[in-house]
Amino acid sequence: VKEITRDIKQLDHAKRHLTTSITTLNHLHMLAGGVDSLEAMTRKRQYGEVANLLQGVVNVLEHFHKYMGIPQIRQLSERVKAAQSELGTQILADFEEAFPSQGSKRPGGPSNVLRDACLVANVLDPRIKQEIIKKFIRQHLSEYMVLFQENQDVAWLDKIDRRYAWIKRQLVDYEEKYGRMFPEEWCMTERIAVEFCHITKVELAKVMRTRAKEIEVKLLLFAIQRTTNFEGLLAKRFTGCTLTDAPGQQKRPESPLDQTNPFLEDEPGDDGGSEKDEDLTKPRKPKAPGNPFHGIISKCFEPHLYVYIESQDKNLGELIDRFVADFRAQGPPKAGTEEGGAVLPSCADLFVYYKKCMVQCSQLSTGEPMIALTTIFQKFLREYAWKILSGNLPKSSSNSGGLTITSLLKEKEGYEAAKFTVDELCLICSILSTAEYCLATTQQLEEKLKEKVDKVLVERINLTGEMDTFSSVISNSIQLLVQDLDAACDPALSAMSKMPWQSVEHVGDQSPYVTSIIMHIKQNVPIIRDNLASTRKYFTQFCIKFTNSFIPKFINHLFRCKPISMVGAEQLLLDTHSLKTVLLDLPSIGSQVLRKAPASYTKIVVKGMTRAEMILKVVMAPHEPSVVFVDNYIKLLADGNPETFQKILDMKGLKRSEQSSMLELFRQRLPTPPSGADSGPSLSFSAPTPEQESSRIRRLEKLIKKRL
């Protein structure tokens, strides 16, 4: 087969070589003719024909890369390069003649020759195109450099509008005269605008450094506003495609406004925060693309924003002083009015101003000035907490602490403690509600600031200390309310401990001291509940703290009731049950709407008052036989402290000799704690369940009814 097809293969190879030779010769003919034509057209400046021909010659020349060893081919290649070089030099000279960079000769108008020259420049070395663009823009902006020199009156910030008006006129003029001269893909209008921005940024920075002492807040804000408006105008007109390859302009990995463009969510001067800044918690709208021109000029103002920050420091100081003066002039909120217990209006005013400052500053800069503004915010949040909130809390008579002659006299004579007036209670509730609003809004403020600031600075924004300050105001307010009600109940408890319980002959209705305690509770609690209607959780905290304070105090006064007869113990048991019922109903006492008390609160009341009932039950039990009495005590109270057992014996009125034997027996009967457990006075008895406690109370109630 090979022998048969040998001749056919030779013919195939010959045909392929012949075809290649013919094609190459055709290309060579085209190249030689094209180079001759190119040189002739270049001399005649026939740029329209050159633009098409040059691209074709370059494409044909690519086919001869493997033949560059042939002298004639290499010579043609060098002639093409020489033609390209000559074209570049010639086109630059033509543009220099039409648009001289120096001299008094006015620039010429657009011409078809220059338009075609631009098409040729597209095919030539990119540096030719860049040089044309650079020279044209420099010549176009040369007038601007003269008009707005640093020593000119129009160069200062108060005339900044004239800069932007000038470039607007120039761009319109360019579009009319030269719009068709340059290829559309060169984006010459945008390039002129971008170069204007770079020059303006440098010139403004220079003039502001020279005249820094003359910069005032209003002037600075005016200049920034006009500049950012102009940057916004550029964003609407241009795409920003030249920012990545403009001279001296590097591509920015991210814009300062990425994800946090305040223009897209907060308009300047937006006072929507008057509704307690509810808009801070609304779901945010999807972000529109950022402005690629943001900061292209306005960045030059950043070093001078300390003027703005100092101004806000002064303004906020005056605002706080005005709040203090208004509070003193108007007085605290009055009970029975809309203001009673409500958030202080000054609080909303403060955060509205904060929001306005934050939005304004974020438009000026998202860098260090935002951190400086945050520090100012922190300072005046603390001042508001101290001067407006803590500073206006009523002083409690029990705040002085320690034993004084007055407190001893109160204890001895059954002195009626000075209570807060209804207006003072309303004021405390109002301050508590305001502190809660401040706490929640400060948290939102921190989140907003973190959104506005540059990502690298987020960690430096921390308002935890200020939130803790408001939490402290809330705790102090609740403590004052608790102390007031607690102090009001003290005389009644003192009266209870001084009653002759040994001589009580029969069990009657609840004792007068119980009636007095219930009266104080019914006076205070409805007022506090109504004024804390908007902050229900803090009213619950008040109830829990009062109960945690009152029940141990009540039990301590129980131990002072000694000696107690059987009938006296039954009367005390009845009183204890009455107090327990009132305490269980405390959250909704005096309310038309019956609401079930929180389970956590009910558990505290049941546990504490059941202990008081168990103490009285132990006191009522006969102390003979001793072993039964001791075991009964251990079972009911689950308290291994000998001091508590001693107090029970004192309440029963036992003699010291009887008490000694009882105490010895008590120590013997105490169960041994498990090995490895911490030794202590309290025993590890399991607390009775609420069902067991309620069944015991029912048995005690039946016992009281039988005796009655």
Automatic annotation (TrEMBL):
<dbReference type="InterPro" id="IPR007234">
    <property type="entry name" value="Vps53_N"/>
</dbReference>
<feature type="domain" description="Vps53 C-terminal">
    <location>
        <begin position="570"/>
        <end position="654"/>
    </location>
</feature>
<dbReference type="InterPro" id="IPR031745">
    <property type="entry name" value="Vps53_C"/>
</dbReference>
<feature type="region of interest" description="Disordered">
    <location>
        <begin position="244"/>
        <end position="291"/>
    </location>
</feature>
<dbReference type="InterPro" id="IPR038260">
    <property type="entry name" value="Vps53_C_sf"/>
</dbReference>
<dbReference type="Pfam" id="PF16854">
    <property type="entry name" value="VPS53_C"/>
</dbReference>
<keyword id="KW-0967">Endosome</keyword>
<feature type="compositionally biased region" description="Basic and acidic residues">
    <location>
        <begin position="273"/>
        <end position="282"/>
    </location>
</feature>
<keyword id="KW-0333">Golgi apparatus</keyword>
<dbReference type="Pfam" id="PF04100">
    <property type="entry name" value="Vps53_N"/>
</dbReference>
<keyword id="KW-0472">Membrane</keyword>
<dbReference type="InterPro" id="IPR039766">
    <property type="entry name" value="Vps53"/>
</dbReference>
<comment type="similarity">
    <text>Belongs to the VPS53 family.</text>
</comment>
<protein>
    <recommendedName>
        <fullName>Vacuolar protein sorting-associated protein 53 homolog</fullName>
    </recommendedName>
</protein>
<feature type="compositionally biased region" description="Polar residues">
    <location>
        <begin position="681"/>
        <end position="692"/>
    </location>
</feature>
<feature type="domain" description="Vps53 N-terminal">
    <location>
        <begin position="1"/>
        <end position="327"/>
    </location>
</feature>
<feature type="region of interest" description="Disordered">
    <location>
        <begin position="669"/>
        <end position="698"/>
    </location>
</feature>
